[in-house]
């Protein structure tokens, strides 16, 4: 599988990110939290809907108004191009996969599950296998270097998927235990079978006794009920007599109370009528005084009106004086007002002209800064070119000064070195083959020698008779041949060693040449040329902007002079505006004069009216309010007296009605007394019957309670008996259930053993270990270290074979350890992917490594061309030199953005 592009919309911190991937090594750079790892997670989400968030809704960008995200991934597998898209909102999800046929895409499947199944079919692996095979998580390389053998075995087992088998083995134990507990419970129940039968017999006997007691209680209840009915009939007759007696007596008491109330009303009414008569006499005395009150009120109102009108006269006179004052102010300051307005117009005109040059200072500053930044960038590119040229000359032992010279040298030198290395490999393999043949000959020669030492009369090969001389002669010939072969082997080993060293020199030289990136030099040279072009454009802009800034300064100076002159005129200008505004607020001068004349005429009329009222009342103005207050009190008293007198007629009518009611009630009371004497009611007998009835009723209730209690007890026993009978039936099913449980537990234990370390886990390790070892060996050989072989034992502990013989990881250098770890991880990936390794993704591969081992890993990655596509997420800038493509991720205001470098 090769990834071609990915498009993320509102996925985590990526609101709209489109990335095109190429083959080779692609580095995704950026700081912590910038959104680098989210790109790898988007690949996993698009393919298999796998992600690291607790809820899928957390993948949607926070603050996204649409509450919707999508990821589109285009990839190639087995020569066919596919496009998969997954969308997710807060409430729904969509997915589809398309295949490219000709120039257009056609849909293969839609829906989350169908798309996932289609991708599994295309890639021939599920999501977990894809992640373990292709995705190298943070710290995995360091773990394969630093962990103990047991820990490394656990890490590799997790990658192989053995962790899920171990988890299944552990998780089945509680299930087995649950069924064991169920079996034990059922066996415990079966042990109580005899006790259950005895309990049924006891409950049947108890039920018969309770039934007998219930029948006896039925007889007693019938006797008590007959006695209670007789007592109740006699009591009901006395209850009727008591009801009539109590009702008549209650009516008598009620009538007496009403009579007392009516006599009290009669007494109150007599007092009220006498009071009304006295108030009529008071009214006759007050009535002549009331007409004077109206004249006095008119006099008071006229005096108040005169004071109010005189205040209006004073106010209008003041306004007329202010109008004269403000007119004088306007005439004095009119010239200053006109000069001020003219200056303002001039300033507005100049400021309008100034807008044509606004921003020129900022633009000039930006261009100066941009010029400085361009110069610095050109300096960095120049330094980088010089540095690379210097390092490359040092590496190659040359003295080139031009990029073209390096490019020409590399193009001509690399094929020569490649051919030499190939020739070395051919010679080494030929010598090794000869060594192997010679060793085989020696092994074959050792056998007849051994046989000749024990056989004395026949040749062990041709079976012909031989004597001791001939036997010794044969042994001598074979031994000589073996010794000759050993000498040849030693000579060939020396030749292989010399050739290997020469090959290593050539391989190192080839590696050094491969590390020289001509494209980087060309890119930096292009940066220099682009910078020179930019500097010319910037200088032209600066000249234009300097002229604009000069003009802007002149305009600002003019504006400043005009504004200073405006400040001097402002006090007089404001006086004019204030006087003009005040004059407008005072109203029209002629209208004010007419209003004053009208008010003065009104004052004369009011004074004449006051004089007439004083003459009519004969009162002085000084005591006017006291006189009015006294007469108003008299008038209020008059009104109150009129209200009281108005009740006279109704009081007389009510007196007549009360006296008639008193006479009627006295007659009714006499009749009720006679009725009470005629009623015969025995209170003592009535009370005795009530007590007897309550006693009998309580006894009856007690008997019924006992009866109900026994019926309930009987019902409980019947329920218990039913349950016991059901249990007895169910015990037979328990016996069958116990047998089934035993068989099922045996099956579960068998299945659990299959998932154990000694079961399928062991089989998978045994099957995968040789494949991983072979793939690891192939990757490790491509790193060109002086080792002839690499082995993995059953615990995946690594042993390497080199010039010094057999070595474990603790005996080799840090760089060689990193090479082994990387080869092992790639070997696992190759095994899991079924040998078709086209893509690998590494998330922070240098994390947890010290500086030396980090550099070693970077050097190895620089030399890797064994995998068609490698995507590396890192914040380690040292990896940039290893990249064919660099993507830089930054986060601004919570939004991740990606740019190519």
Automatic annotation (TrEMBL):
Pfam families: Rad50_zn_hook, SMC_N. Binds 1 zinc ion per homodimer. One of its GO terms (biological process) is double-strand break repair. Residues 3-895 form the RecF/RecN/SMC N-terminal domain. Its cofactor is Zn(2+). Residues 186-282, 333-381, 589-713 form a coiled coil. ATP binds at residues 12, 32-38, 138, 811-816. Keywords: ATP-binding, Coiled coil, DNA damage, DNA repair, Hydrolase, Metal-binding, Nucleotide-binding, Zinc. Gene3D superfamilies: Helix hairpin bin, P-loop containing nucleotide triphosphate hydrolases. GO terms for molecular function: ATP binding; ATP hydrolysis activity; zinc ion binding. Residues 444-488 form the Zinc-hook domain. Zn(2+) binds at residues 459, 462. The two conserved Cys that bind zinc constitute the zinc-hook, which separates the large intramolecular coiled coil regions. The 2 Cys residues coordinate one molecule of zinc with the help of the 2 Cys residues of the zinc-hook of another Rad50 molecule, thereby forming a V-shaped homodimer. PANTHER family: ABC TRANSPORTER ABCH.3. Belongs to the SMC family. RAD50 subfamily. HAMAP family: RAD50. Part of the Rad50/Mre11 complex, which is involved in the early steps of DNA double-strand break (DSB) repair. The complex may facilitate opening of the processed DNA ends to aid in the recruitment of HerA and NurA. Rad50 controls the balance between DNA end bridging and DNA resection via ATP-dependent structural rearrangements of the Rad50/Mre11 complex. Homodimer. Forms a heterotetramer composed of two Mre11 subunits and two Rad50 subunits. This is DNA double-strand break repair Rad50 ATPase. It comes from Methanobacterium spitsbergense.
């Amino acid at each position: 599988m090769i990834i071609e592009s990915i498009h993320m919309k509102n996925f985590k911190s990526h609101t709209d990110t489109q990335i095109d991937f190429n083959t080779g090594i692609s580095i995704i750079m950026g700081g912590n939290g910038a959104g680098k790892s989210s790109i790898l997670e988007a690949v996993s989400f698009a393919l298999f809907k796998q992600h690291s968030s607790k809820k899928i809704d957390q993948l949607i960008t926070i603050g996204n108004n649409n509450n919707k995200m999508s990821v589109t991934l285009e990839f190639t597998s087995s020569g066919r191009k596919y496009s998969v898209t997954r969308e997710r909102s807060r409430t729904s999800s969509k997915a589809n996969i398309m295949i490219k046929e000709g120039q257009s895409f056609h849909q293969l499947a839609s829906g989350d599950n169908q798309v996932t199944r289609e991708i599994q079919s295309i890639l021939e692996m599920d999501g977990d296998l894809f992640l373990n095979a292709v995705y190298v998580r943070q710290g995995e390389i360091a773990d394969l270097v630093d962990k103990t053998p047991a820990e490394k075995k656990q890490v590799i087992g997790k990658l192989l998927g053995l962790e899920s088998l171990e988890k299944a083995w552990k998780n089945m134990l509680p299930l087995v235990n649950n069924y064991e507990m169920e079996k034990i419970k059922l066996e415990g129940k079966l042990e109580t079978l005899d006790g259950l039968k005895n309990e049924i017999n006891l409950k049947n006997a108890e039920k018969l006794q309770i039934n007998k007691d219930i029948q006896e209680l039925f007889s007693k209840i019938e006797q008590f009920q007959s006695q209670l009915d007789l007592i109740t009939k006699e009591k009901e007759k006395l209850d009727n007599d008591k009801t009539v007696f109590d009702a008549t007596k209650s009516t008598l008491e009620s009538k007496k109370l009403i009579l007392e109330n009516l006599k009290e009303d009669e007494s109150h009414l007599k007092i009220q009528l006498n009071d009304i008569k006295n108030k009529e006499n008071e009214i006759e005395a007050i009535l002549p005084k009331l007409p004077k009150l109206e004249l006095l009120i008119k006099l008071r109102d006229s005096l108040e009106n005169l004071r109010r009108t005189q205040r209006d006269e004073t106010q209008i006179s003041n306004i007329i004086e202010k109008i004269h004052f403000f007119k004088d102010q306007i005439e004095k300051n009119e010239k200053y007002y006109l000069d001020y307005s003219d200056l303002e117009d001039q300033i507005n005109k100049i400021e309008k002209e100034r807008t044509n040059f606004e921003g020129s200072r900022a633009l000039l500053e930006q261009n100066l800064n941009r010029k400085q930044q361009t110069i610095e960038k050109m300096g960095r590119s120049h330094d980088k070119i010089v540095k690379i040229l210097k390092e490359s000359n040092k590496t190659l032992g040359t003295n080139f000064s031009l990029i073209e010279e390096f490019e020409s040298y590399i193009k001509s030198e690399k094929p020569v070195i490649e051919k030499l290395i190939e020739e070395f490999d051919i010679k080494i393999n030929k010598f090794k083959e000869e060594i192997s043949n010679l060793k085989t000959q020696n092994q074959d020669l050792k056998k007849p020698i051994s046989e000749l030492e024990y056989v004395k009369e026949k040749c062990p090969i041709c079976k012909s008779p031989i004597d001791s001389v001939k036997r010794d002669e044969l042994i001598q010939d074979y031994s000589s041949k073996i010794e000759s072969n050993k000498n040849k082997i030693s000579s060939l080993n020396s030749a292989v060693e010399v050739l290997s060293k020469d090959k290593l020199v050539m391989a190192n030289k080839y590696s050094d040449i491969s590390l020289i990136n001509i494209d980087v030099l060309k890119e930096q040279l292009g940066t220099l040329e682009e910078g020179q072009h930019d500097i010319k454009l910037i200088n032209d802009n600066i000249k234009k902007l300097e002229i604009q800034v000069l003009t802007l300064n002149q305009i600002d100076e003019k504006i400043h002079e005009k504004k200073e002159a405006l400040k001097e005129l402002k006090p007089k200008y404001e006086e004019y505006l204030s006087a003009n505004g005040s004059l407008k607020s005072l109203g029209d001068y002629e209208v004010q004069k007419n209003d004053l004349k009208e008010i003065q005429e009104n004052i004369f009329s009011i004074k004449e009216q006051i004089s007439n009222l004083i003459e009519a009342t004969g009162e002085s103005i000084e005591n006017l309010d006291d006189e009015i207050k006294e007469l108003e009190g008299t008038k209020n008293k008059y009104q109150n007296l009129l209200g009281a007198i108005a009740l006279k007629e109704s009081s007389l009518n009510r007196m007549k009605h009360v006296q008639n009611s008193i006479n009627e009630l006295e007659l009714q009371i006499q009749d009720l007394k006679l009725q009470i004497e005629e009623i015969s009611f025995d209170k003592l007998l009535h009370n005795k019957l009530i007590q007897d009835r309550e006693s009998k009723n309580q006894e009856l209730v007690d008997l019924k309670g006992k009866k109900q209690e026994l019926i309930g007890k009987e019902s409980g026993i019947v329920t218990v008996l039913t349950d016991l009978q059901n249990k007895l039936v169910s015990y037979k099913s328990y016996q069958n259930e116990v047998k089934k449980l035993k068989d099922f537990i045996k099956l579960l234990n068998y299945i659990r053993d299959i998932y154990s370390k000694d079961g399928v886990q062991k089989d998978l390790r045994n099957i995968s270990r040789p494949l991983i070892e072979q793939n690891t060996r192939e990757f490790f050989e491509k790193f060109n270290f002086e080792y002839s072989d690499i082995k993995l034992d059953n615990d995946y502990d690594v042993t390497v074979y080199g010039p010094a013989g057999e070595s474990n990881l603790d005996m080799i250098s840090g760089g060689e350890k990193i090479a082994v770890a990387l080869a092992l991880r790639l070997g696992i990936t190759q095994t899991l992917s079924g040998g078709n390794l086209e893509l690998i993704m590494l998330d922070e591969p240098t994390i947890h490594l010290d500086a030396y081992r980090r550099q070693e890993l970077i050097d190895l990655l620089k030399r890797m061309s064994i995998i068609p596509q490698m995507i590396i997420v890192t914040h380690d800038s040292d990896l940039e030199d290893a990249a064919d493509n660099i993507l830089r991720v930054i986060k601004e205001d919570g939004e991740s953005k990606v740019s190519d470098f």
